Amino acid sequence: MAEVEAIKELDSIKLISHLLEIRCSKQMSDIWNIGLNLALRISDLLSIKFSDIQEDRLVIKESKTGKQANIKLNSKVIKHIRRIQQEHPMHIYLFQSYRNQQAINALPKPLSRRSVTKAFALVGEELNLNLGTHSMRKTRGYHLYKQTKDIGRVMKMLRHGSEGVTLRYIGITQDNIDKDFVELEI
């Protein structure tokens, strides 16, 4: 399995959202759009409950690291969340599985990681991209780095422990660093 990549072109980011909606579902498009803005691992993204959201903040404990993520929500995410909540006022999870409603007396569950992986792979194949669930997190990190050139800031956002891990994670290669040295003349 190839390593998934950050999506570096803004037009491709929008196209992925569009294709997820028309090929899969509005819910998959919402996962992509919200996931891009929250930079959470897919397990944490799918486990978000509406009760984790307080006005313009999301506070959750990350399952992999045990660290607390306290994220201020931007207007795009708030708009998506409000629409989802309005369309599904009885849901507990932001990305709740619809299939579970057919099981009598079954507790609500979030959408499965597997279903999101399949949807993203389908669209990635169509666009000839290594698209996966980590692509949202990597894309957010990549674009923050390109905008600020502040690897420490990206590390903090992704809650990573080293610059090398973060640079590799967001797809900044030695070629990119060499290019920055050549292009920036002082």
UniProtKB/TrEMBL annotation:
<protein>
    <submittedName>
        <fullName>Integrase family protein</fullName>
    </submittedName>
</protein>
<dbReference type="InterPro" id="IPR050090">
    <property type="entry name" value="Tyrosine_recombinase_XerCD"/>
</dbReference>
<keyword id="KW-0229">DNA integration</keyword>
<dbReference type="GO" id="GO:0015074">
    <property type="term" value="P:DNA integration"/>
</dbReference>
<dbReference type="InterPro" id="IPR011010">
    <property type="entry name" value="DNA_brk_join_enz"/>
</dbReference>
<dbReference type="Pfam" id="PF00589">
    <property type="entry name" value="Phage_integrase"/>
</dbReference>
<dbReference type="InterPro" id="IPR002104">
    <property type="entry name" value="Integrase_catalytic"/>
</dbReference>
<dbReference type="InterPro" id="IPR013762">
    <property type="entry name" value="Integrase-like_cat_sf"/>
</dbReference>
<dbReference type="GO" id="GO:0003677">
    <property type="term" value="F:DNA binding"/>
</dbReference>
<dbReference type="GO" id="GO:0006310">
    <property type="term" value="P:DNA recombination"/>
</dbReference>
<keyword id="KW-0233">DNA recombination</keyword>
<feature type="domain" description="Tyr recombinase">
    <location>
        <begin position="2"/>
        <end position="182"/>
    </location>
</feature>
